[in-house]
Amino acid sequence: MKLLIGIPKGSLQEATLELFARAGLPAYTNGRSYHATTADTEIDCMLIRAQEMARYVEHGAIDAGLTGLDWVIESGLEVTTVADLTYAKRSRGKVRWVLAVPESSSFQRAEDLSGRIIATELVHVTGSYFAQKKIDVRVEFSWGATEVKPPMLADAIVEVTETGSSLKANRLRVLETVLESNTQLIANKCSYANREKKRKIDNLALMLRGAMEAQERVGLMLNVRKENLNGVLAVLPALQKPTISHLSDTDWLAVNTVIDETAAWEVIPRLKEAKAQGIVEYPLNKVVL
């Protein structure tokens, strides 16, 4: 059995390859090749633009792939959503498709754009958005550089943003959010109905989620006398209940837990004040909940 997984080529490519590596499945690319092998001999990868991923998954050309919810909706195709993986190019947050106009324009809401031209890559979603509001606009497909089109080539745009910096740099003002999107692992229905392929795809989802949960978290282990345990536990903002085990010295206990990395700065000194000893902070590769 061979499983072919689509990796989104473009803005999500680097973040996705890094996530695969953290999950324990590094993908090895070869120069300009669009194909990649992995450490698992049953899994190969192929670089495909996120906009086209749902099409090739639905057709069965690839078994599964990672792409945005936005492009799944835009395609209108039937695929199986296996996992939500909320990460983007620069962050672990969702991205937004927003309706934006020039800062200097008089437009204040979507209704003000009646009869106007809207440029976007997300044509069908944008058309449906305005149709639901019963606003008559002309939606034109944009091949890229969408931010520079208002006001000469379009009256407004619907564009994806993660931080808003590109919109601000092009002196654009957001009117409304059209759609929120996040990365998804999607699968071909027939492939996912295959017992062996489903097991492999589910395992991939499990490990990718585990790698994401480990981001920005660290492990903590420490020793504490039994009489001081409650004071230590009161300090720990545990992911779940910490693991507590006995040491060879029956008066002492070992405590192991997971915390947000940003919390360590405050937590570790407080643990020391609570009489914890042998405090060790260590990085995490995966956290499987």
Q: What report would you give on this structure?
A:
- It is a single chain.
- By secondary structure, the protein is an alpha+beta fold.
- Helix content is 29%, strand content 34%.
- The protein is built from nine helices and 16 strands.
- It has a seven-stranded mixed β-sheet, sandwiched between helices.
- Strand 2 (27-29) and strand 3 (35-38) form a beta hairpin.
- The longest helix is centred in the last third of the chain and has 20 residues, at 195-214.
- The relative contact order is 0.15.
- The mean pLDDT is 92.
Layout of strands and helices, then pairs:
Layout: E1 3-9, H1 13-22, E2 27-29, E3 35-38, E4 43-49, H2 50-59, E5 64-68, H3 69-75, E6 80-85, E7 95-102, E8 117-120, H4 123-132, E9 138-141, E10 156-161, H5 165-169, E11 172-181, E12 183-187, H6 189-193, H7 195-214, E13 217-225, H8 229-235, E14 243-246, E15 252-260, H9 264-273, E16 277-283
Parallel strand pairs: 1-4, 1-5, 8-9, 8-10
Antiparallel strand pairs: 2-3, 3-4, 5-12, 6-12, 7-10, 7-11, 13-15, 13-16, 14-15
